[in-house]
């Protein structure tokens, strides 16, 4: 009778160790992505000179997140891009890339999650390309992250 009780305790202990191990591994991967927000701010001149952000690491297959803040004017056109050789911290180029997402429009005080397959296609960093939807002069202010912590749109 005592032997059976000890065996149950050993099995319970091993199950707990296994559970903690799975949680530790899963938790580590869930928080490994690059989801923190980086701000952008610029005045679009209206002359067709699109702008780009500094590249950031794209570490998983979650959607890219962009938010246009309340003080932005007009509607922002935005796409994520990547190219070979660009690494995190380097300035992106809105006219030269090896990969680009579809373009999306974001009005002031709104946000958008959209697919960004740069990581899946082998690029290590991605950046935003931005312009005014009406190509007139506007002030834009917002936040973005190449990955998102909600896992929204995860296509692992």
Can you give keywords for this protein?
19% helix; alpha+beta; 156 residues
SSE layout and pairing:
Blueprint: H1 2-30, E1 38-44, E2 51-52, E3 56-57, E4 64-68, E5 75-82, E6 99-100, E7 104-107, E8 111-114, E9 125-132, E10 138-145
Antiparallel strand pairs: 1-10, 2-9, 3-9, 4-8, 4-10, 5-6, 5-7, 5-9
What does this entry look like structurally?
The chain is α+β, with helices and mostly antiparallel strands. 19% of the residues lie in helices and 32% in strands. It has one helix spanning 2-30, and strands at 38-44, 51-52, 56-57, 64-68, 75-82, 99-100, 104-107, 111-114, 125-132, 138-145. Strands 2, 3, 5, 6, 7 and 9 form a six-stranded antiparallel beta sheet that branches. It is elongated.
How much helical structure, as a percent, in the residues?
Answer: 10-25%
Given the helix and strand composition, which structural class is it? alpha+beta
Q: Number of DSSP strands?
A: 10
N- and C-termini, Cα separation: 49 Å
- By DSSP (H or I, 4+ residues per run), the number of helices equals 1
Report the uncertain regions: 22-31
**Largest sheet composition:** 6 strands, antiparallel
The outline comes out as elongated
Radius of gyration: 22 Å
User: What is the average per-residue confidence, as pLDDT, rounded to a whole number?
Assistant: 85
What is the N-to-C succession of helices and strands?
HEEEEEEEEEE
Which percent band covers the strand fraction? 25-35%
